[in-house]
Amino acid sequence: MTTSNKFTELQTFYTGKRVFLTGHTGFKGSWLCLMLKELGAEVYGYSLAPGTEPNLFTILGLENRIHSTIGDIRDLDSLEKAYIEANPDVVLHLAAQPIVRDSYKDPRYTYETNVMGTVNILECLRNHPGATSFLNVTTDKVYENNDLENHGFTEDEKLDGYDPYSNSKSCSELVTHSYKKSFFSDPAAPAISTSRAGNVIGGGDFANDRIIPDCVRATIGNQPIIVRNPYSTRPYQHVLEPLYAYLMIAMRQSGEKSFSGYYNIGPRDEDCINTGDLADYFVKYWGDNATWENHAEPNAPHEANFLKLDCTKARTTFGWEPEWHVEDAIRNTVDWYKAWNNCEDMYNFTKEQIQEFLEAN
Q1: Model pTM greater than 0.90?
Q2: 3-state DSSP call for residue 255?
């Protein structure tokens, strides 16, 4: 296949690299495992067992395609053992309790996982030198959000997420900042960054309380889609957008430590749409009498009404731009779920979507 210069650059860097990936059995982690394999990396994953049935990790058969360790990020001894075995060049930290509503149900577990999990992986990085690049993946919800319309958050704004999930990821950011200043200031130390992205969509997400999985479950079950927050605006993007950015940041800072920092990764302004519009696009591309209903909840747990990121820093620093508009992202997402529902070869289908995306870059 014909590939772009950006893909070639990634492939040149990651071929033969040992990459330690926490959260590898999750939705984003599974896509990232396959993406790294396509780039020639040796992937070592550490995570809990997949949290849903079905799940993308199993659908893609990744357990037999990478080095996979099932363990709890809160268990430092287990994590450290896997880390030493991997002896990584690059560390990507994705392990988290990622659901806002679940964080209201079990805030203690959310903080233990999202805060102490970050401490634990940074302890591995500190105590076992060798890696040149570390990236902590957080969320667009880390900022103090006063629901100011059309305000795009920049990286220097106050971190203070509202709900336990968002706040715990704000704390994860602060932990990373502290470790970076306290233990990794030497020029020979690994480069450390955080990346703030969220509201990703794409094939293979089967989590509860997420709009696309809810759309898929309802439509396959011949039921109308129930939309709880149709007026909430979010920076929706295909999962491959931030994953490409994570790999790019980790690569660039590995070669030039001045690139380490804190980066928003989100869609163009025109691609920040509300959940009702997202449901409209889903219905359009699914067809087959798919419909949705407005079930706005008057007493729902607090979630921000408006959320948008200013990604100027990533654009000016790296020349990075989002590739797929939101309608392209939704179309590719629907195509994946339709193929899965039709029992197609999802390993090759998913690989082809990755190739299509990387070729477009």
Answers
A1: yes
A2: helix
